[in-house]
Amino acid sequence: MQNTPTTTLGYALFATRWLQAPLYFGLVAAQGVYVYKFFKELWTLILMCVSGHATETYVMLAVLKLVDVVMIANLLIMVIVGGYETFVSRIGLQGHRDQPEWLSHVNSNVLKVKLATAIVGISSVHLLQMFVDVHHTSHHSLMWGTVIHMAFIASAAILAYMSGPMAAQSDRGHADRGHADRAPAGHPQVVRPQPGQETPGATLPHPRQPEPETVPVSEPDEDAEARIRAAGFPARKLLEDFDQQHPRGFDRETVARLGKADFVTARHNVVFVGPTGTGKTHLAVALGVRACQAGHRVLFATAAEWAARLSDARAAGRLDAELAALDEHPLLIVDEIGYTPFDAATAGLFFQLVAHRYERASLIVTSDRPLGRWDEVFGTSAPAMADRLAHHAEVVRLEGDSYRTRRATAAWTD
Fold this sequence. Notes:
The protein is α/β, with parallel strands linked by helices. About 55% of the residues lie in helices and about 5% in strands.
């Protein structure tokens, strides 16, 4: 159990990040200054051209000056948006058609590399201005302008080179902790019940955790394999192996987009809804595999297994610690919601899981019934749970007959 004064102090220190917010608003005002400067330079160029006093060199220098202003404004945008998102608070642009591609995975390394690249571009424009106006530029200025520009290029190259190993080292650190995502002490390994096997009154198993393995971390592919093994998938399923012709209807474009695993970085959820045998678990596992390959830790279990894990944690008085430990996994997969109704206490545990991860980490959920019918499974907890789950979620409906039944019927007719 966490010490309350320590926790309060930590939250207070974390809240000081808002002191940076006025700095970014100041940069917004600075961007307004550059907008004014741009149109002032543009108006001067137009007047010079109309009056016939603009030489070719003057036009080139004026245009380069406009480009310079635009590039500095772009640099300001990256600092304002990326810095605010990284150091102050997330910006809720989910679903906005103009959301920048880089915003969903911005971090301090990405921001530094982009800033260095922008500075090199600005320096290039300044150096070009010197060479265009070479007759009015001293050799001393040209030499030092070139030296400074090369220093910017070297600095950007070194920063980009260092950012790669730093990010890889961070991923390896997560992978090392995830090579054997075992349950806390006393948790048994998962024994997944066979189809048709019933376990009335028995304690449900915990999500399956593999035995620790010594996995070399020198190759990124080996790190991904370690994460896949640690996820506890019932079997490896790939998006490429999914029979897209079987479901009578589902949003193929959405599934393809989810296959990029950006939803995990954005802390969004995915809900697969459809009858038994339409491929919900296949798609959930396939997205989990993609997430592992993208560097995220994943944990898979059925709804019954999650219920057992959370119930045991509550009985041991460590439910909060268990939920906090699950934060180490950016993606949790809850399979087969709806096949077994839960009592009010267990439904409350699922609500705590969903509420705890709300806008903090991602969930993939599969269910045989839409969110509007979850009251049949979770009772009065269902509306609040579904509201949080669906707020930042892609809901994919699959329609059709059971793939397994269809294959069995085809074999029987043959």
